[in-house]
Write a structure and sequence with these properties.
Elements (H helix, E strand, L loop, with lengths): L18 H15 L1 H9 L5 E3 L5 E5 L7 H18 L4 H7 L5 H13 L2 H17 L8 H17 L6 H10 L6 H10 L7 H17 L1 H16 L10 H20 L7 H32 L8
Antiparallel strand pairs: 1-2
Helix pairs in contact: 1-2, 1-3, 1-7, 2-3, 2-5, 3-5, 6-7, 12-13
């Protein structure tokens, strides 16, 4: 648990395990104090020195009371930044920087400790890239949780100087979803230009679809079970099939065939065969049912020869 308050005038705490998160927040915190605070971290701040007759610095430090206003401002910025860094680390991290008098030196020590040298940073970036490429959403995982996993890797990469663009993140999310999102992914790819899509926009759309499929599985299953029982388990004379219901079922079968043709075309070689088999079944089933309906209707309207008008 992080030991930081909710107040905006308190810096975030670095405990050695949250550097990616801490770096972004601490950078913003330092910039929010005064402009010279962050500048002192970037450029550094040297103690003013006594100059010789030619105007060059000597090794002798200038007394504080003789500093110029600009020197006072630079020193104030450095002290504010150093104070924020000292209070923005836990005891273990503080041991690394407690002897620093310049904020830039303290910042570089912490950065090198967690980011490493150029070679170490490159190795870390390669590891993050491998994790990013192999990451897949689990069947029992929510869109929100998967989104957080993606952001964690993206933030880790960004803290090492390699920012992931929106298009890369959007493409990764669409490629990594379970099969239950196939219809939604196809719809998104056909309806929108992925290169211009934002991650948050995609996540909202996927969450809406996720809620829909989570809320209606029972209803959908009951409907399928009803149709199966109604049209396959009936005995002659037990159920008279309405032609409108029959036509609706046939129409649903045709729509399902169209969906199968559109989904993952070329990626699943057995889809075409499945679609063909369903079509053949619907055709043969349809002819049989139509004949049965006509026979049933003719029996119902058959006039008794002994009746008179």
């Amino acid at each position: 648990m992080e030991k930081e308050g909710g107040q905006v005038n308190r810096p975030p705490i670095l405990d050695g395990s949250n550097y990616d998160y801490w770096k972004v927040r601490m950078t913003t915190f330092l910039k929010s104090i005064v402009n010279k605070t962050w500048k002192s971290v970037v450029k550094g701040s040297d103690h003013p020195r006594v100059k010789d007759k030619d105007g060059n610095d000597t090794i002798e430090l200038k007394p504080v009371e003789e500093w110029s206003k600009d020197a006072d401002d630079l020193a104030l910025g450095n002290n504010k930044a150093l104070n924020a860094l000292f209070n923005g680390v836990d005891k273990n991290m503080f041991r690394l920087i407690n002897n620093c008098t310049v904020a830039k030196d303290a910042w570089n020590i912490l950065r090198t400790k967690h980011e490493g040298t150029s070679k170490v940073k490159m190795s870390k970036l390669q590891l993050i890239t491998i994790k990013f490429e192999t990451l897949k959403m689990k069947d029992d995982e929510s869109i929100q949780d998967f989104h957080m996993s993606i952001l964690e890797l993206a933030n880790a990469s960004g803290s090492l100087g390699e920012k992931m663009i929106e298009e890369k993140l959007v493409g990764k999310i669409l490629r990594s979803l379970p099969k239950r999102f196939d219809m939604k992914v196809t719809a998104i790819e056909e309806a929108q230009h992925i290169a211009n899509m934002k991650v948050e926009e995609l996540i909202r759309s996927l969450q809406t679809f996720e809620m829909a499929i989570d809320d209606h599985p029972e209803k959908k299953n009951k409907g399928i079970a009803f149709l199966y029982i109604a049209f396959n388990d009936q005995t002659e004379g037990d159920l008279v099939i309405d032609e409108e219901i029959f036509e609706t079922v046939v129409l649903l079968g045709r729509q399902f065939n169209n969906i199968l043709k559109r989904l993952d075309k070329g990626r699943k070689p057995n889809v075409k065969n499945i679609s063909s088999n369903i079509k053949k079944y619907n055709d043969s089933w349809g002819k049989t049912k139509v004949d049965n309906i006509k026979t049933s209707r003719s029996k119902e309207i058959k006039i008794n020869p002994s009746s008179t008008l």
